[in-house]
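Customer ticket, subject: "Can you confirm the structure for AzlC family ABC transporter permease?"

Message body: Hello, I'm evaluating your service for our small team and ran a test protein. I'd like someone to confirm that this is what the system normally returns, since I don't have a reference to compare against.
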Amino acid sequence: MRDVAALAAAVAVVGASFGALAIAAGVPVWMASVMSLLVFAGGSQFMVVGVLAAGGTPFAAVAAALLLNLRHLPFGLVVGDLLGRNRAAQLLGAHIMIDESVAFAMAQRDPQRARAAYWLCGITLFCAWNPAVLVGAYLGEAMGDPADFGLDAAFPAALFALLLPQLREPGPLRVAIAGAVLAVAATPFLPAGVPVLVALLGVVFALPLPKKLERAR
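Agent reply: Thanks for trying us out. I re-ran your input and got the following:
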């Protein structure tokens, strides 16, 4: 609960910045707020505003956001069992499925604790993000760039810390290293957000090693 509360505070600042940047890009207050309620994906929301601010069409903005959110497909395979059998709970659980809620859940080894961490993180961040977006939209550009607060580094650092317990096992460690190398290698050549999708190819390294290599070890 302490970790989630600290992350929620950071999310609120970023949400306020998104609201301010959306208004600066010409997005109405109501649209920024509705987008946050119905989409609830910070990276994709910033992507949409960035494309529109650069003169892109709404179609291009939505296409870029959908491409960035393709990573939610493997997320769903990982946390699907945590959402339960109830259809309403599954729909709500899918809506709050973000990087942070998945990472908090995966950091827990006990299924019950993983379920509790997932729901606690997702709902708390949803309740922090949406009011902050509305406040930021009304304050305009007063909040400034999230990078001014160091939050551009805080989020990756927090997620890395959540993943550390998983890296004790050889399989997840191989996947993490391979994904990181692929993402870094693809960054100079691909648009922002796409290297994250390329990193998903690292999951291949989760496959069992050939018997000859296993014996050699």
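A couple of notes from the result: The longest helix spans residues 111-139. The radius of gyration is 18 Å. Feel free to reply with more questions.
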